[in-house]
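Two quick folds needed for the group meeting slides. Do the first one here.
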Amino acid sequence: MEYVAGYLSALIVVAVGLLGIILALIVLEVSKAKFVLALILSLIVVGLGGYYYYVVGQAEQGVANPNVLNSVLKVSAVVSVPPSVILPSSVTTGEMIPTVPRGEKNESGVKKESAAPVKIKIKESKSMER
């Protein structure tokens, strides 16, 4: 049941491509150049939908890299980002956090700071008045 959504998505893409082929045949009555363009684009969509169906099937079977087209074209290359800070194992993260003194301390030693009140002025437009 895990791959049902993938299969349904692939079939929807193929169905849209077939609908494009039908519409291309309708356009043939108007213009041959537009028919050729619409037919080529629709066949590309049908081909991509079929390939998507194939990839979902290969992923379901457990193939290591079912998306061969992606590995050839490098469309979605995974870029590994190096970590920004590497801490040595002897240093804990609590020692790295600086404490900034603000406000007053209460009995438990926790610092608290009071915020200044904010005043909001609301102007009513003349269209709201009756």
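Then this one, please, same format:
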Amino acid sequence: MKQNNSQKSIFYSRIFGIVVLAVLWIVLICVLFDRGGFNPKNVLTAIFSGIIIFYPLWKKYLQPIFDDRKKNNP
């Protein structure tokens, strides 16, 4: 099934937003490790913040796209 231009632009804008958020998260995690040191507390903070930020985005935006692709390409 072909996507029209509107669907493609929505897809690319979602990907762009997620990439910007990921870059910001990586920068903040680097600041956390730089200022607070590399210890178990900061590692857990980084892991849990990544889960809290990216898991809902995956479920809402990216998983349906990959599910549709699997249905269309057996």
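Slide caption for protein two: Helices lie at 5-36, 40-72.
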